[in-house]
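Entry 14. Ran structure prediction on the chain below.
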Amino acid sequence: MKYAYYPGCASESTARDQHESSLAIAKSLGLDFIEPDGWICCGTTPAHHTDKLLSLSLPAANLIKTQKMGFDMVVNCAACYNRMKIANYEIQNNSKIRQSVNTAIGENYDGSVNVKHIIEVLLKDLGLENLQKSLTHSLNGLKIASYYGCLLVRPKEATHFDDPENPTSMDRIVESLGGESIDFPHKVECCGGALTLTRPDIIIKLTDSILNMAQKAGAECIVVACPICQMNLDLRQKDIEKQTGKRYNMPVIYITQLTGLCLGIRPRQLGLNKLIVSPSAVLNKISLKNVKDF
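Output, structure tokens:
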């Protein structure tokens, strides 16, 4: 199966571990991810907060490159996924916006490229049965809180990803890997997103609430699909401890990393050495405690 793989700007910086693990599991599962030539930033939150036409034209410029390739677009970043889906929705449903966007990008794009998150590729295109046939390790009952955040599921009329209040896509993958998906009522609560630099006080409050709920629910780790969510929940645990005295020591791992471990891919190839909170507890659970390259 071939896809146009849009890595996004963070793929070689703050989300390099998500990028590396996405490519690693794709290779292991026989999925061919091909980057569109000359892809550009999707605009994400800054464009969305600055100029509507810009926020739609940047994704459209990438989508039309994908259209010319003749493949579906696969995205691993929830923010990029959200902007691509919203651009398609606006272009399909508003002729004036479509005309303005096409003028801005200098080409005629109709909003028809099928955009998929890598979770959807694993669930629907590959299928859990085929995924399980490729596994070499099990999560052995590891208790996991699946945290979706805001951008995968909202707005529901544009993303059509899952139930916006109680999504289960990652939970199903977790269970297929041999994990225990715990009941986690904060799975779509906001982590504060891009306020991490400008309003760390808000980030600390929101991430503390999410981590606290996961811990109370019995989670041994949190699995995510968004680089902003991963960064906030992983990085801010030390700040929470300094301000409140609470020590969570909760690993926050990408779903691609968790999948890769069960496919027998070495932790360093999945970027697990880049996490702030050590994933050792997770590795121990799946009998990878003596892996040499971690």
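The CA atoms of residues 235 and 276 lie 6 Å apart. Will compare against last week's run tomorrow.
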